[in-house]
Amino acid sequence: MFSDQFAKLWLSMQSDYQAYMERELAPDLTEVQLYTLELILSMVKAKPSDLIAHLEISPAAISTLVDRMEKNELLIRERDEHDRRIVWLQVTEKGRNAYELGIEIRRRYFASRLDALSEHNQKLLCYLMGKIAPDSQLADPPRRVN
């Protein structure tokens, strides 16, 4: 079995990725904040409670995260006009700019790693990772590259 070799490679890549993202996003954004902005922007409307399942952290930790992001002007809380108990999260212009920069930083990291592979092998790697990823619907079948 290759599980030990895979684990070492995975953990090495994960550690390298986290160090890169921390270094490149600092001081304005964290990786969790980038992912949070990505989640909010992908939803039509988002409440803090909508983030719990995706971030796998406690409601108290969500509140702390949202507080920090609001303090840094990455998002705002907005009361629902029909039910004042509901709070919606809106990404600010500053938050959208930080998100776009963060996505570009992430894209550069993965592009630099994938450059070692042919286009065909990049597609194959994505396909194979999709087979073992928790959400296997993310992988598209590989297409032959001429």
Automatic annotation (TrEMBL):
GO molecular function, one term: DNA-binding transcription factor activity
Keyword Repeat: no
Keyword terms: DNA-binding, Transcription, Transcription regulation
Gene Ontology biological process terms in this record: response to stress
HTH marR-type domain location: 1-134
InterPro entries found in the cross-reference section: HTH_MarR-typ (IPR000835), MarR/SlyA-like (IPR039422), Tscrpt_reg_MarR-type_CS (IPR023187), WH-like_DNA-bd_sf (IPR036388), WH_DNA-bd_sf (IPR036390)
Domain of life (superkingdom): Bacteria
SUPFAM superfamilies (UniProt xref): Winged helix' DNA-binding domain
Keyword DNA-binding: yes
The name this protein goes by in its record: HTH marR-type domain-containing protein
Organism the protein comes from: Insulibacter thermoxylanivorax
